[in-house]
C-alpha cells in the first residue's frame, strides 16, 4: 500500500523523477503539508476537526446515539421508526443481517438473538418480526428453524394470536418431533381458544413422548371435562328450546279449542297462528303475552280503554275465569283513590259500562260485569287483536256514552 | 379332501417367498382349503414348517396370496390346538407379524390380522403368551389402542373393530388389566367413548366387556370412579333413555347423563346391557363404589331403565344393584361384600331363586 502510494506521488508531483535534491525534497514536503492542512480545513468546521466529531457540548447526545453506548432499546411507548437511525447502527445492522456479509445460518441466528432480546423486553411485535425474518433466511439448520418457530409461537401467544401460535407449534414440531415445549405451548394456546378437541389431540401427542407428563395429563382431563360441560349445556339449551316450543304450541291449541278468534294487524291469509303473532304491541305491555297458568287456564294481558279521556289501563294478568267485576273493583272500587285523569270522580265501579268492538260490523257489543273474560272472548263477535284483548269503559248513562254510542250507528 | 404329510412336504417348497408367484398363490390356496376340515387343521398344526411359511406369506406382494395366508391363520387360530401351534413359533412370531400388518396403513387385510390376534388371545393360557410377546416390543397394547381409536387409520377400508375383542381378551388377565388401567397409558381412557359407539357392535361390546372386567379389580375402584375415568357415568349412559328428570335431579347426575335429548336410545343388545349391569354390581362390592354410585344418583337412571327393560336377566341384575343402592351402609353391614361368606345351602337357595325369576316366576 505505502509503496503504491509513493509511486503515485512520484508520478503526479515529480513527473516520474527519481533522483532528488535536498531543496526539491523540502519543497515537496511543504506542499504536501499544505495540501493536508487545506483538506482538513475544507472538511472540518474550521478548527481542523471532523464535522461529526464529538464536542464538549454535544458528547452526551452523541454518546446516547452511538450504537456502542446507546441504551439498547427505546423507552416503552416510543414509536418505532420515529427516531432517526444512527448511521453507525445501520452499519452494524448491515454487518449482522446483510446476507452479503454473513451466511443465511448466521443471519437467522442473529435474528433469533435479536428476537429473543425483544421478547425479553416484552416487545412481542418486534420479536415476531425478527423471528419471521430469521425464518425467511431458509437456513438449512432444522433445529434453528424449529427454535425460531417455537419462539415466534411464544411471542404470538403473548400477543393473544393463539391461532398463529398453534400454527407455528405445528411447524416447529414438524422440524423437531420431540419438541415438548412446543406441545405444551400449543396446549395452552388451544385452551385459550377453548378448542377442547385440539387441547385433547395435542395432549395425546405430548403424552406419546412422555406418558407421565403431569401437566399434559391434567390438561387432558380438563379438556375432557370442559367438553362434557359444553355438550351438556348444548343439550340443556336444545331441551329448553323444545320445551318452550311445545308450551307455545299448547297455548295456541287451547286458544283454538276455546273458539277464540285471533286477528293481527297484519293478517297473512289463512297461515297458522304462532305465538309471535300474539306478542302484544302495547308499549306498557311489552314482554307480556298470553300464557297458560298452572291450572291450564289462559292468562291474557288485557287493555281497558277510557275513550272519554283518551286514557287506558293495562292489566298484565287477566285469567280467563276472572270476572270483569273483580278487576273493575280493584281499579274503581270503594276507597280506591280515583285515577288522576278522573277529575270529576265519575268512574265508580257500580256505574260503569263495558263494551267491546265488533270489528267486522263496526258495532259496539255490551259486556256484563258478571261475565268472565272467557265468556267475552268466546263471543263469536269478539276478535282478539294483537294478542291483547281490549275493552271500552264508559260511565253508564253519561252524556259522553250517548255521543260515543251514536258514532257506531 | 385328504392331504398327506407327503403332499404338504411338496407344497411347502412352493410356499417359500422365492417361489414363482403363480405357483405360490396356488399352493397357498391349497393349504387354505385344508383349513376347512378338522383333519386338515390337525395336520397343519403338526407342521411348523408350513405354518412358518404361511406366516411369512402375509407380507407377499400378491393380495390374493395374502388373503389366503390370512384365512389360514384365522381358521387355525380359531381352534386352540392351532392357536397353540402358531404361538409356539418364534421366528417369525405370529403376534409380531400381525401387529406389523395392523400398523401398516395400506395393508389390505388388516381386519383379518385383528381377527387372528382376537382368536389367539381367547384361551386364557394363550392370552398370556400373546400379551408377553406384545410387551417384548414396548407397550404395543397402547400403540394398538391408539390405532384402534383412529376410525380411518387403514386406507384400504379395514375397520379394525376386532381389536376390541383382543383388548377384552387381554383384560381377562390381571397383568393385562394392569396395562389397560396403567395411569400413564390411557388404554382404558381411549376405549371409553366406544361404550356408546353406534357404528359398531364389536367396538361397543369390546369396550363394555373390558370395562366390565376392569371393575372386578377392587383396588382400582377408586381410580375408576374418579374423574380420570368416571366409570359410573360411562356405564350408566347406555342404560339411560330420554330425559325425564327434574332440573335438580339432572344437576346431580354425572355430566354425560344430564339433559339427555328426546331421541336418546338405550343399548339395544341385552348381552351388552347385562355386562353393564354386572359391572355396576361389581362396583357395588366395595363401600366406596356404592357411595360413589349413590352420590351420582345412579338409582334414578336405574329406576327409569327398569321401567323400560324387557329382558328378565337384565331386570334381575338391575334389581340387585338397586337393592344395594337403596340400603344404608348400616343395613348392608359389610364394606367389602366379596368378603361375606355365603353358606352353601343359602347359596343354593339364591341360585334357585334366580333361576325361578328368570323362568318367569316371582321372587
From TrEMBL, chain A:
<dbReference type="Pfam" id="PF00515">
    <property type="entry name" value="TPR_1"/>
</dbReference>
<dbReference type="Pfam" id="PF18972">
    <property type="entry name" value="Wheel"/>
</dbReference>
<feature type="domain" description="Cns1/TTC4 wheel">
    <location>
        <begin position="296"/>
        <end position="407"/>
    </location>
</feature>
<dbReference type="GO" id="GO:0005634">
    <property type="term" value="C:nucleus"/>
</dbReference>
<dbReference type="GO" id="GO:0006457">
    <property type="term" value="P:protein folding"/>
</dbReference>
<feature type="repeat" description="TPR">
    <location>
        <begin position="146"/>
        <end position="179"/>
    </location>
</feature>
<dbReference type="GO" id="GO:0030544">
    <property type="term" value="F:Hsp70 protein binding"/>
</dbReference>
<keyword id="KW-0802">TPR repeat</keyword>
<keyword id="KW-0677">Repeat</keyword>
<feature type="region of interest" description="Disordered">
    <location>
        <begin position="36"/>
        <end position="58"/>
    </location>
</feature>
<dbReference type="InterPro" id="IPR011990">
    <property type="entry name" value="TPR-like_helical_dom_sf"/>
</dbReference>
<dbReference type="InterPro" id="IPR019734">
    <property type="entry name" value="TPR_rpt"/>
</dbReference>
<dbReference type="GO" id="GO:0005829">
    <property type="term" value="C:cytosol"/>
</dbReference>
<protein>
    <recommendedName>
        <fullName>Cns1/TTC4 wheel domain-containing protein</fullName>
    </recommendedName>
</protein>
<feature type="compositionally biased region" description="Basic and acidic residues">
    <location>
        <begin position="48"/>
        <end position="58"/>
    </location>
</feature>
<comment type="similarity">
    <text>Belongs to the TTC4 family.</text>
</comment>
<dbReference type="InterPro" id="IPR044059">
    <property type="entry name" value="Csn1/TTC4_wheel"/>
</dbReference>
<dbReference type="GO" id="GO:0051879">
    <property type="term" value="F:Hsp90 protein binding"/>
</dbReference>
From TrEMBL, chain B:
<dbReference type="InterPro" id="IPR007205">
    <property type="entry name" value="Protein_HGH1_N"/>
</dbReference>
<dbReference type="InterPro" id="IPR039717">
    <property type="entry name" value="Hgh1"/>
</dbReference>
<comment type="similarity">
    <text>Belongs to the HGH1 family.</text>
</comment>
<dbReference type="InterPro" id="IPR011989">
    <property type="entry name" value="ARM-like"/>
</dbReference>
<dbReference type="Pfam" id="PF04063">
    <property type="entry name" value="DUF383"/>
</dbReference>
<protein>
    <recommendedName>
        <fullName>Protein HGH1 homolog</fullName>
    </recommendedName>
</protein>
<feature type="domain" description="Protein HGH1 N-terminal">
    <location>
        <begin position="102"/>
        <end position="274"/>
    </location>
</feature>
<dbReference type="Pfam" id="PF04064">
    <property type="entry name" value="DUF384"/>
</dbReference>
<dbReference type="InterPro" id="IPR016024">
    <property type="entry name" value="ARM-type_fold"/>
</dbReference>
<dbReference type="InterPro" id="IPR007206">
    <property type="entry name" value="Protein_HGH1_C"/>
</dbReference>
<feature type="domain" description="Protein HGH1 C-terminal">
    <location>
        <begin position="279"/>
        <end position="332"/>
    </location>
</feature>
Amino acid at each position: 500500500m505505502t509503496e503504491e502510494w509513493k509511486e503515485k506521488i512520484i508520478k503526479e508531483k515529480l513527473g516520474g523523477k527519481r533522483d532528488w535534491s535536498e531543496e526539491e525534497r523540502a519543497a515537496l514536503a511543504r506542499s504536501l503539508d499544505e495540501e493536508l492542512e487545506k483538506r482538513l480545513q475544507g472538511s472540518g468546521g474550521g478548527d481542523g476537526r471532523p464535522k461529526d466529531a464529538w464536542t464538549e457540548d454535544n458528547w452526551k447526545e452523541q454518546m446516547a446515539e452511538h450504537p456502542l453506548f446507546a441504551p439498547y432499546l427505546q423507552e416503552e411507548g416510543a414509536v418505532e421508526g420515529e427516531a432517526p437511525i444512527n448511521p453507525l447502527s445501520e452499519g452494524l445492522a448491515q454487518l449482522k443481517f446483510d446476507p452479503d456479509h454473513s451466511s443465511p445460518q448466521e443471519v437467522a441466528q442473529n435474528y433469533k438473538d435479536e428476537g429473543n432480546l425483544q421478547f425479553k423486553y416484552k416487545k412481542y411485535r418486534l420479536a415476531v418480526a425478527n423471528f419471521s425474518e430469521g425464518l425467511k433466511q431458509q437456513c438449512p439448520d432444522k433445529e434453528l428453524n424449529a427454535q425460531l418457530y417455537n419462539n415466534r409461537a411464544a411471542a404470538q401467544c403473548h400477543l393473544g394470536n393463539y391461532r398463529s401460535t398453534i400454527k407455528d407449534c405445528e411447524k416447529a414440531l414438524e422440524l423437531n418431533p420431540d419438541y415438548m415445549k412446543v406441545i405444551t405451548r400449543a396446549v395452552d394456546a388451544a385452551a385459550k381458544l377453548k378448542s377442547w378437541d385440539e387441547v385433547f389431540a395435542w395432549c395425546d401427542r405430548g403424552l406419546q413422548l412422555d406418558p407421565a407428563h403431569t401437566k399434559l395429563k391434567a390438561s387432558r382431563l380438563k379438556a375432557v371435562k370442559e367438553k362434557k360441560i359444553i355438550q351438556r349445556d348444548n343439550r340443556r339449551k336444545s331441551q329448553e328450546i323444545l320445551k318452550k316450543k311445545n308450551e307455545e304450541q299448547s297455548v295456541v291449541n287451547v286458544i283454538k279449542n276455546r273458539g277464540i278468534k285471533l286477528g293481527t294487524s297484519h293478517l297473512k291469509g289463512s297461515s297458522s297462528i304462532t305465538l309471535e303473532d300474539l306478542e302484544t304491541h302495547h308499549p306498557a305491555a311489552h314482554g307480556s303475552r298470553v300464557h297458560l297458568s298452572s291450572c291450564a287456564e289462559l292468562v291474557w294481558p288485557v287493555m281497558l280503554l277510557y275513550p272519554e279521556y283518551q286514557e287506558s289501563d293495562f292489566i298484565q294478568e287477566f285469567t280467563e275465569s276472572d270476572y270483569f267485576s273483580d278487576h273493575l273493583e280493584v281499579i274503581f272500587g270503594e276507597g280506591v283513590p280515583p285515577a288522576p285523569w278522573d277529575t270529576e270522580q265519575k268512574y265508580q265501579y257500580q256505574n260503569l259500562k263495558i263494551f267491546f268492538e265488533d270489528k267486522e260490523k263496526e258495532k259496539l257489543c255490551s259486556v256484563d260485569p258478571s261475565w268472565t273474560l272467557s265468556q267475552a272472548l268466546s263471543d263469536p263477535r269478539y276478535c282478539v287483536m294483537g294478542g291483547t284483548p281490549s275493552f271500552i269503559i264508559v260511565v253508564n248513562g253519561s252524556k259522553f256514552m250517548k255521543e260515543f254510542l251514536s258514532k257506531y250507528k | 379332501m385328504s392331504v398327506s404329510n407327503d403332499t404338504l412336504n411338496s407344497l411347502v417348497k412352493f410356499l417359500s417367498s422365492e417361489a414363482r408367484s403363480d405357483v405360490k398363490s396356488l399352493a397357498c390356496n391349497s393349504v387354505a382349503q385344508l383349513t376347512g376340515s378338522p383333519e386338515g387343521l390337525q395336520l397343519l398344526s403338526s407342521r411348523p414348517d408350513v405354518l412358518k411359511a404361511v406366516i411369512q406369506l402375509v407380507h407377499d406382494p400378491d393380495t390374493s396370496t395374502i388373503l389366503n395366508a390370512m384365512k389360514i391363520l384365522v381358521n387355525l387360530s380359531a381352534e386352540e390346538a392351532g392357536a397353540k401351534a402358531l404361538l409356539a413359533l418364534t421366528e417369525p412370531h405370529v403376534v409380531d407379524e400381525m401387529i406389523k400388518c395392523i400398523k401398516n396403513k395400506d395393508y389390505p387385510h388388516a381386519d383379518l390380522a385383528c381377527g387372528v390376534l382376537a382368536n389367539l388371545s381367547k384361551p386364557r393360557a394363550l392370552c398370556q403368551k400373546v400379551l408377553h410377546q406384545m410387551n417384548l416390543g414396548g407397550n404395543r397394547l397402547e400403540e394398538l389402542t391408539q390405532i384402534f381409536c383412529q376410525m380411518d387409520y387403514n386406507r384400504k377400508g379395514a375397520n379394525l373393530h376386532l381389536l376390541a375383542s383382543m383388548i377384552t381378551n387381554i383384560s381377562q388377565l390381571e397383568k393385562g388389566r394392569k396395562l389397560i388401567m396403567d395411569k400413564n397409558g390411557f388404554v382404558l381412557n381411549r376405549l371409553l367413548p366406544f361404550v356408546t359407539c353406534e357404528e359398531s357392535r364389536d367396538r361397543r361390546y369390546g369396550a363394555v366387556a373390558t370395562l366390565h372386567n376392569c371393575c372386578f379389580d377392587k383396588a382400582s375402584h377408586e381410580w375408576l370412579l374418579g374423574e380420570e375415568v368416571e366409570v359410573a357415568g360411562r356405564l350408566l349412559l347406555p342404560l339411560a333413555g330420554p330425559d325425564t328428570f327434574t332440573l335438580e335431579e339432572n344437576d346431580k347426575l354425572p355430566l354425560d347423563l344430564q339433559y339427555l335429548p328426546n331421541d336418546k336410545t338405550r343399548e339395544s343388545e341385552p348381552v351388552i346391557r347385562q355386562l353393564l349391569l354386572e359391572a355396576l354390581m361389581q362396583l357395588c362390592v366395595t363401600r366406596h363404589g356404592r357411595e360413589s354410585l349413590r352420590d351420582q344418583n345412579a338409582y334414578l337412571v336405574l329406576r327409569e331403565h327398569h321401567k323400560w327393560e324387557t329382558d328378565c336377566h337384565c331386570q334381575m341384575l338391575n334389581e340387585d344393584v338397586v337393592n344395594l343402592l337403596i340400603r344404608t351402609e348400616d343395613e348392608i353391614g359389610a364394606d367389602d361384600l366379596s368378603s361375606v361368606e355365603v353358606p352353601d345351602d343359602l347359596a343354593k337357595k339364591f341360585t334357585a331363586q334366580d333361576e325361578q325369576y328368570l323362568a318367569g316366576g316371582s321372587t
